[in-house]
Amino acid sequence: MSQYISNIKSPKVSIAPMVDRTDRHFRYFTRLLTKKSLLYTEMITAQAIIHGDRNMLLDFDVFERPLALQIAGCDAKNIGKAVKIAEGWDYDEINLNVGCPSDRVSGNEMGASLMAYPELVRDMVKVMKENTDKPITVKHRIGIDGNGVLPDNFGRKLLDKYEDLTKFVDIVEEAKVDRFTVHARIAILAGLSPKENREIPPIRYADVYKLKNDFPHLNIEINGGIKTTKEIKEHLNYVDGVMIGRAAYDTPFILSEVDKFFDDGEINNISRREVIEGLIQYLSNLDDNTREYNVLKHAMGLFYGVRGSKNWRQLITPPWDKEKNAVDVLREALEILPQDVLNMRVQE
């Protein structure tokens, strides 16, 4: 079989798609901190794109780019329709979700359960590529425990060996996937919540390293439990890119450092004061119907680990005084929080 070598360059760092997290407000906040990382939408089903409010689902600000759209589905025809519709929004990449372990998703034969059907994933990617010239990527797990989910006639329900992973990749790469983003845990499709699936199955980074070694022509990005820039640097010795998830949400100021992993090595080096000023400008330009806390909730961890963290969280958490709005709250924060922390930069 001929090997497909993608002509796209994998981002050194990306921020994982997270349901109820990576909305437009979070992406704007994140882009203040990192100018180069690839951002993602929340997972959006193909059916929602076909039948739902497309502007609400797909609109984004050019400031958020580079930005990838993540789609979930289990039918190649519908996936193709959704990708064709999304062409009107000009995302930088489109990603197929083959990793979500939620019962709501896997029970509908989407997400991680698709790892049991690599030929279907391959066919969906082929149809996606027929409907766009944008890079098509796949985000998946290193394996699955399908007991209680996969049908009785499926045969093996535990696909957790490295050989199962390589079989999946070997088949799916026939569709000329531009990048494989691999969460280094198996997904347990029954009995665990999505949160538990991020914590309980053992992390197996070595499997992802070996995958890159065995498929050197592929773009391989690693995901799962990565929390610090030191860890990012270590992983980049073995793979093409690193995707971080909850750490980007819980400790977002680390994102002001991650641009150093890209080619020119120049970090964004923004201060928390400048981030807050950016949020003030953003809020000032928002539609009046936007619930302002839906913006500020994403910045809850901005002062994680430094003086003023508790005061910051208290300030931006409603209820606020009746005469105050979110902009007033942020301006108050600039006055009362420790000035040295507000002005602190990674490189001083």
UniProtKB/TrEMBL annotation:
It catalyses: 5,6-dihydrouridine(20a) in tRNA + NAD(+) = uridine(20a) in tRNA + NADH + H(+); 5,6-dihydrouridine(20a) in tRNA + NADP(+) = uridine(20a) in tRNA + NADPH + H(+); 5,6-dihydrouridine(20) in tRNA + NADP(+) = uridine(20) in tRNA + NADPH + H(+); 5,6-dihydrouridine(20) in tRNA + NAD(+) = uridine(20) in tRNA + NADH + H(+). The keyword tRNA-binding applies. Residues 15-325 form the DUS-like FMN-binding domain. It comes from the Bacteria. Its EC number is 1.3.1.91. FMN binds at P17, M18, V19, Q70, K139, H183, N223, G224, G225, G245, R246. GO terms for molecular function: flavin adenine dinucleotide binding; FMN binding; tRNA binding; tRNA-dihydrouridine20 synthase activity. The active site is at C100 (proton donor). Keywords: Flavoprotein, FMN, NADP, Nucleotide-binding, Oxidoreductase, RNA-binding, tRNA processing, tRNA-binding. SUPFAM superfamilies: FMN-linked oxidoreductases. The record marks N97, K195, R198, R313 as: Interacts with tRNA. It is an enzyme of class 1 (oxidoreductase). Its cofactor is FMN. InterPro entries: Aldolase_TIM, DUS-like_FMN-bd, DUS_fam, DusA, tRNA_hU_synthase_CS. Belongs to the dus family. Belongs to the Dus family. DusA subfamily. Catalyzes the synthesis of 5,6-dihydrouridine (D), a modified base found in the D-loop of most tRNAs, via the reduction of the C5-C6 double bond in target uridines. Specifically modifies U20 and U20a in tRNAs. This is tRNA-dihydrouridine(20/20a) synthase. It comes from Anaeromonas frigoriresistens. The lineage of its organism: Bacteria, Bacillati, Bacillota, Tissierellia, Tissierellales.
